[in-house]
Amino acid sequence: MQTPRRMSRLEGKVLVAQGGGPTAVINQSIVGVTLEARKFTQVKAVYGAVHGVRGILNEDFLDLTRETTHNLERVADTPSSALLSTRDKPDEEYCARMFKVMRRHDIRYFFYVGGNDSADTVRIINEQAESTGYEFRAIHIPKTVDNDLAVNDHCPGYGSAARFVAQAFMGLNLDNRALPGVLVGVVMGRHAGFLTAAAALGRKYVEEGPHLIYLPERVFSKERFLADVDRVYRACGRCVVAVSEGVQDETHTPLLVSLRDHKEHDAHGNVQLSGTGMLGDLLADLVRDNLKIKRVRADTFGYLQRSFMGVVSDRDAHEARELGELAVQSAMWDNVDGSMVIRRPVLNYSVTYGLVPLSEVAGKTRTMPAEFINEEGNGVTDAFSHYCRPLMGSGFPESHRLRAPHVPKIEET
Amino acid sequence: MQTPRRMSRLEGKVLVAQGGGPTAVINQSIVGVTLEARKFTQVKAVYGAVHGVRGILNEDFLDLTRETTHNLERVADTPSSALLSTRDKPDEEYCARMFKVMRRHDIRYFFYVGGNDSADTVRIINEQAESTGYEFRAIHIPKTVDNDLAVNDHCPGYGSAARFVAQAFMGLNLDNRALPGVLVGVVMGRHAGFLTAAAALGRKYVEEGPHLIYLPERVFSKERFLADVDRVYRACGRCVVAVSEGVQDETHTPLLVSLRDHKEHDAHGNVQLSGTGMLGDLLADLVRDNLKIKRVRADTFGYLQRSFMGVVSDRDAHEARELGELAVQSAMWDNVDGSMVIRRPVLNYSVTYGLVPLSEVAGKTRTMPAEFINEEGNGVTDAFSHYCRPLMGSGFPESHRLRAPHVPKIEET
Asked: Same structural domain for residues A230 and A331?
């Protein structure tokens, strides 16, 4: 329902919700929506749906008009979805039931914070609203640690998760340097390698790990992987590897599946890749069995990387907050629907925000552009570092090492 | 070689090294040793052995007298062992070879930062020195994320790792609340459950996870575990579990071994427990198969918990630094050997440092006292929280949640 730009006089309630996996800054967006919406006289109340669309279906709303500004500010600084989340993907019937509830409560503005599945949910609801002649505004606010939304330069949630991954690999590299061997770190990312690629951002000295980075954008060859690890290990005496959980073989089968039959699927038909250490362990076995290296370890970052308490990019938090505020301003001042997007007009670094039709974002997946991946398909380029660094925010820690000279050996007498 | 308290006039070089697993603050101790040792005129140079005792054997020393104070301060703030580490456990012959090197370089003061294996290494070297009539001072400086050294109230390295574990579980709990299910987090700890117990320190609200904590100090019963998870899940609709990697069944077999034959042993004859997600995955399978719960996930913290860049307890860092300085002062002013220890004269909170004979610490393991573990053996007590909280340092993050009232449901008309 793209309508001419004039202020919305539509009186009613605002509903805000969150869908999909949490991030470290997702609450910034719902707090942005809530605080901004409370300023408009057309808004009779601001409701938060508990557990996303499922909360709408179940008529499970919190009255955020009754929440203190001070507590909202504190919730904004807390990771994971304060309104709780859902993996439900509404169909026509699900949406029809939601509308009955929305109408009953006079919901006229809907803001849904989520990834491409959530954008698709907003699109379906919006089409339903239009087809049933129910006037309301619906805006999707992006978030995802995978950074895989179309149109956007980057997505809220990514910068903080990237910072966690970079800091984690800084530590793993130092640990592996102290007690050498092969260390495989498995990072989230089903189709897009952005988060895994961030592992490179903690490197400071030339020979520091991760020495190898494998992304879902490139076919993963076991033989090539073993040859790479062997080469690095022979040269450096150690090897740190970053692997996306979603790496696939030449038949587009996730490696976890091709290495081992693994059955659980979620409601969206996706194989479960997170919440298990299996891929890392299988890769470690591969190295151990084929290269005869004794000390081989695998660490799977799991849910720590998207909800860790205390590692947040201030820039990421700021942008997530602004998107929430701007979504409300767009609905109110411009009376439009759509998906909020972040663009980067210059690389060194500024953003502009915009609103695009939901169909441009819904259900679509963006992956790493070719110029961010090295030719060998086992690392990232400086262009990627340049892209990613500002997203991780200020105060990024730096590692330091001893540079004292070696003591000459004394001849045995 | 406990000798009368008089200042050491022994001229020669200082050697400092690190052994065993790294920690976030271990470099504070070597920097404390280096900066303090450089003040004494008896000290002709301060050497750092690269890769612990192995560096001594290989005559691989850095001349820390040639390192800038400013860089040392930055290295102190960097996690993991800047002098690199080793798992070697010297025997008599190994020690004899080390002494040849030490004598050649006129090493007269030896400071070794490590756990109970490293303390034992210092003890062996010290006995060797005495039996061969070589005059020198040797002091062990404690560090271990496991917090399992005898005599000590707590060990440097533990507070920072505990903070990481607590912050990680704060995030995992919030994530699990947003998308409910069962989440098992596996934490380091072979014999002592201190680090796993720290998972409880992030809890703020009554029903927050971890709801269950399993420690190596109590026999792990699969049946009991399943009954516990089932009870919590039925009551809360979700369940977060913290498990030590070292939990054992009634036959004292590590659960990882009893659940699956797993062969790799390290040089100390220990089964490899870290660097694999297997225990978590096996426990998740146990829950999935027996309780018919669909969403079951396991996260294994792995090496992140001991070397993560950017999560440090300031108190931990301070104490690690002081122990390094005091070790040198003890050797110089008091001319004694031993193991530095931390004691806590009052619970609310202060420490005193001391020096005890190496035999009191070497090779010994301290586990969680009974008053820190609840009666059911599946959680910790307030006494433990009171013990652990100050060790995690200042500025510990706090989570916040929405407290807005629920909107009354509207009757369908």
From this structure: no
